# Entry
Amino acid sequence: GENVEQHPSTLSVQEGDSAVIKCTYSDSASNYFPWYKQELGKGPQLIIDIRSNVGEKKDQRIAVTLNKTAKHFSLHITETQPEDSAVYFCAACLTSGTYKYIFGTGTRLKVLA
Amino acid sequence: EPEVTQTPSHQVTQMGQEVILRCVPISNHLYFYWYRQILGQKVEFLVSFYNNEISEKSEIFDDQFSVERPDGSNFTLKIRSTKLEDSAMYFCASSEMGAGEQFFGPGTRLTVL
# Structure
Protein backbone atom coordinates (compact mmCIF):
# COMPACT_ATOMS: atom_id res chain seq x y z
CA GLY A 1 0.00 0.00 0.00
CA GLU A 2 0.96 3.65 0.01
CA ASN A 3 3.71 4.46 2.45
CA VAL A 4 6.18 7.24 3.23
CA GLU A 5 9.31 6.51 5.22
CA GLN A 6 11.05 9.39 7.00
CA HIS A 7 14.50 9.56 8.61
CA PRO A 8 15.84 10.39 11.08
CA SER A 9 13.17 10.30 13.77
CA THR A 10 15.15 12.76 15.91
CA LEU A 11 17.85 15.20 14.93
CA SER A 12 19.88 17.55 17.11
CA VAL A 13 22.06 20.21 15.53
CA GLN A 14 23.99 23.19 16.79
CA GLU A 15 22.60 26.60 15.98
CA GLY A 16 23.96 27.72 12.63
CA ASP A 17 24.50 24.20 11.32
CA SER A 18 22.45 22.56 8.58
CA ALA A 19 19.77 19.94 9.03
CA VAL A 20 18.69 17.37 6.46
CA ILE A 21 15.60 15.18 6.67
CA LYS A 22 14.96 12.45 4.11
CA CYS A 23 11.81 10.75 2.89
CA THR A 24 11.08 7.87 0.58
CA TYR A 25 7.67 7.19 -0.93
CA SER A 26 6.22 4.03 -2.40
CA ASP A 27 3.58 5.21 -4.87
CA SER A 28 5.35 6.21 -8.06
CA ALA A 29 2.24 8.10 -9.18
CA SER A 30 2.69 10.63 -6.34
CA ASN A 31 3.48 14.02 -7.80
CA TYR A 32 3.15 16.59 -5.01
CA PHE A 33 5.38 16.61 -1.93
CA PRO A 34 4.72 19.10 0.87
CA TRP A 35 6.71 19.57 4.05
CA TYR A 36 4.95 20.58 7.24
CA LYS A 37 6.29 21.98 10.50
CA GLN A 38 4.36 21.17 13.66
CA GLU A 39 5.03 23.08 16.84
CA LEU A 40 3.85 21.82 20.19
CA GLY A 41 0.08 21.96 20.52
CA LYS A 42 -0.49 23.31 17.03
CA GLY A 43 -1.58 21.97 13.68
CA PRO A 44 0.89 21.29 10.88
CA GLN A 45 1.95 24.36 8.88
CA LEU A 46 3.24 24.13 5.32
CA ILE A 47 6.82 25.35 4.99
CA ILE A 48 7.69 24.32 1.44
CA ASP A 49 6.43 22.02 -1.26
CA ILE A 50 7.62 20.60 -4.55
CA ARG A 51 5.93 19.13 -7.58
CA SER A 52 7.24 16.25 -9.61
CA ASN A 53 8.22 18.35 -12.61
CA VAL A 54 10.85 20.15 -10.52
CA GLY A 55 14.04 18.72 -9.02
CA GLU A 56 14.75 21.39 -6.46
CA LYS A 57 13.05 24.35 -4.83
CA LYS A 58 14.45 26.90 -2.42
CA ASP A 59 12.89 29.47 -0.12
CA GLN A 60 15.44 31.43 1.89
CA ARG A 61 17.00 28.97 4.39
CA ILE A 62 14.81 26.07 3.34
CA ALA A 63 15.21 23.87 0.27
CA VAL A 64 13.66 20.66 -0.94
CA THR A 65 15.10 18.23 -3.48
CA LEU A 66 13.26 15.50 -5.33
CA ASN A 67 14.60 12.41 -7.08
CA LYS A 68 11.63 10.83 -8.83
CA THR A 69 13.60 7.90 -10.13
CA ALA A 70 14.67 6.88 -6.65
CA LYS A 71 11.41 8.08 -5.08
CA HIS A 72 13.35 10.18 -2.57
CA PHE A 73 12.85 13.73 -1.44
CA SER A 74 14.70 15.71 1.20
CA LEU A 75 14.34 18.85 3.28
CA HIS A 76 17.40 21.00 3.86
CA ILE A 77 17.48 23.75 6.47
CA THR A 78 20.58 25.92 6.51
CA GLU A 79 21.78 28.28 9.26
CA THR A 80 19.42 26.68 11.75
CA GLN A 81 17.96 28.78 14.54
CA PRO A 82 16.37 27.75 17.85
CA GLU A 83 12.93 28.63 16.45
CA ASP A 84 13.41 25.92 13.84
CA SER A 85 12.98 23.38 16.66
CA ALA A 86 9.77 21.46 15.94
CA VAL A 87 8.50 18.23 14.42
CA TYR A 88 8.75 18.10 10.64
CA PHE A 89 6.56 15.88 8.49
CA CYS A 90 6.98 15.05 4.84
CA ALA A 91 4.00 13.93 2.79
CA ALA A 92 3.27 12.54 -0.63
CA CYS A 93 0.15 13.27 -2.59
CA LEU A 94 -1.37 12.06 -5.80
CA THR A 95 -2.78 15.17 -7.49
CA SER A 96 -5.71 13.40 -9.03
CA GLY A 97 -8.54 11.58 -7.40
CA THR A 98 -8.91 12.42 -3.73
CA TYR A 99 -5.69 14.33 -3.04
CA LYS A 100 -5.13 12.70 0.34
CA TYR A 101 -1.75 13.17 1.95
CA ILE A 102 0.30 10.20 3.06
CA PHE A 103 2.51 11.50 5.84
CA GLY A 104 5.91 10.33 6.98
CA THR A 105 6.52 9.39 10.58
CA GLY A 106 7.97 12.78 11.52
CA THR A 107 11.37 14.12 12.58
CA ARG A 108 11.84 15.92 15.87
CA LEU A 109 14.44 18.61 15.19
CA LYS A 110 16.15 20.24 18.10
CA VAL A 111 18.42 23.20 17.46
CA LEU A 112 20.83 23.74 20.32
CA ALA A 113 21.77 27.32 21.12
CA GLU B 1 -4.82 35.65 6.87
CA PRO B 2 -7.69 33.14 6.60
CA GLU B 3 -7.34 30.02 8.68
CA VAL B 4 -9.09 26.78 9.48
CA THR B 5 -10.68 26.77 12.92
CA GLN B 6 -11.72 23.80 15.04
CA THR B 7 -13.87 23.41 18.13
CA PRO B 8 -13.56 22.29 20.82
CA SER B 9 -9.82 22.34 21.39
CA HIS B 10 -10.16 19.47 23.86
CA GLN B 11 -13.01 16.98 24.25
CA VAL B 12 -13.21 14.42 27.03
CA THR B 13 -15.84 11.70 26.71
CA GLN B 14 -16.78 8.35 28.13
CA MET B 15 -16.36 5.21 26.08
CA GLY B 16 -19.50 4.51 24.06
CA GLN B 17 -20.59 8.12 23.88
CA GLU B 18 -21.06 10.07 20.66
CA VAL B 19 -18.86 13.04 19.87
CA ILE B 20 -19.03 15.67 17.18
CA LEU B 21 -15.91 17.55 16.22
CA ARG B 22 -16.44 20.80 14.39
CA CYS B 23 -14.39 22.60 11.79
CA VAL B 24 -14.80 25.80 9.84
CA PRO B 25 -12.71 25.52 6.68
CA ILE B 26 -11.38 28.52 4.78
CA SER B 27 -14.35 30.11 3.07
CA ASN B 28 -13.48 29.69 -0.62
CA HIS B 29 -12.10 26.16 -0.23
CA LEU B 30 -13.86 23.26 -1.85
CA TYR B 31 -12.00 20.20 -0.58
CA PHE B 32 -12.16 19.10 3.03
CA TYR B 33 -10.30 16.47 5.01
CA TRP B 34 -10.06 14.91 8.42
CA TYR B 35 -6.81 13.44 9.71
CA ARG B 36 -5.91 12.07 13.10
CA GLN B 37 -2.67 11.83 15.05
CA ILE B 38 -2.31 9.42 17.92
CA LEU B 39 0.10 10.83 20.49
CA GLY B 40 3.68 10.58 19.26
CA GLN B 41 2.73 9.04 15.93
CA LYS B 42 2.32 10.30 12.40
CA VAL B 43 -0.66 12.08 10.97
CA GLU B 44 -3.06 9.62 9.33
CA PHE B 45 -5.67 10.29 6.66
CA LEU B 46 -9.27 9.57 7.63
CA VAL B 47 -11.54 10.97 4.94
CA SER B 48 -11.77 13.47 2.11
CA PHE B 49 -14.93 15.31 1.12
CA TYR B 50 -15.83 17.22 -2.01
CA ASN B 51 -19.07 18.37 -3.58
CA ASN B 52 -21.06 17.20 -0.56
CA GLU B 53 -19.89 13.65 -0.66
CA ILE B 54 -17.04 11.50 0.56
CA SER B 55 -14.28 11.17 -2.03
CA GLU B 56 -12.21 8.60 -0.19
CA LYS B 57 -12.00 7.11 3.26
CA SER B 58 -9.31 5.10 4.97
CA GLU B 59 -9.62 1.78 6.77
CA ILE B 60 -9.78 3.71 10.04
CA PHE B 61 -12.97 5.45 8.92
CA ASP B 62 -15.40 2.64 9.72
CA ASP B 63 -19.17 2.71 10.26
CA GLN B 64 -18.71 4.53 13.56
CA PHE B 65 -17.47 7.60 11.73
CA SER B 66 -19.42 10.04 9.60
CA VAL B 67 -18.85 13.48 8.15
CA GLU B 68 -21.24 16.21 7.24
CA ARG B 69 -21.26 19.70 5.85
CA PRO B 70 -24.53 20.87 7.44
CA ASP B 71 -24.33 24.42 6.11
CA GLY B 72 -22.08 26.57 3.99
CA SER B 73 -19.40 26.97 6.61
CA ASN B 74 -19.13 24.00 8.98
CA PHE B 75 -17.61 20.58 8.39
CA THR B 76 -18.16 18.01 11.14
CA LEU B 77 -16.76 14.63 12.11
CA LYS B 78 -19.03 12.43 14.20
CA ILE B 79 -17.93 9.34 16.08
CA ARG B 80 -21.04 7.40 17.04
CA SER B 81 -19.77 5.20 19.84
CA THR B 82 -16.29 6.15 20.95
CA LYS B 83 -13.64 3.61 21.85
CA LEU B 84 -10.51 4.05 23.94
CA GLU B 85 -8.41 3.78 20.80
CA ASP B 86 -10.18 6.79 19.29
CA SER B 87 -8.19 8.99 21.68
CA ALA B 88 -6.08 11.18 19.41
CA MET B 89 -5.66 14.66 17.99
CA TYR B 90 -8.07 15.20 15.10
CA PHE B 91 -7.11 17.70 12.44
CA CYS B 92 -9.40 19.23 9.88
CA ALA B 93 -7.86 20.52 6.65
CA SER B 94 -9.14 22.29 3.58
CA SER B 95 -7.80 23.19 0.17
CA GLU B 96 -8.96 25.48 -2.58
CA MET B 97 -8.09 23.03 -5.29
CA GLY B 98 -7.56 19.34 -4.97
CA ALA B 99 -3.98 19.45 -6.16
CA GLY B 100 -2.53 21.99 -3.80
CA GLU B 101 -1.70 23.02 -0.28
CA GLN B 102 -3.94 21.75 2.45
CA PHE B 103 -4.40 24.16 5.32
CA PHE B 104 -4.66 22.48 8.69
CA GLY B 105 -6.61 23.61 11.73
CA PRO B 106 -5.14 23.59 15.24
CA GLY B 107 -6.76 20.27 16.05
CA THR B 108 -9.16 18.84 18.62
CA ARG B 109 -7.67 16.60 21.26
CA LEU B 110 -10.15 13.79 21.93
CA THR B 111 -9.72 11.83 25.14
CA VAL B 112 -11.90 8.74 25.58
CA LEU B 113 -12.06 7.42 29.15
Observations:
- Chain B touches chain A at residues 4, 31, 33, 35, 41-45, 48, 50, 55-56, 58, 91, 95, 98-107 (CB under 8 Å).
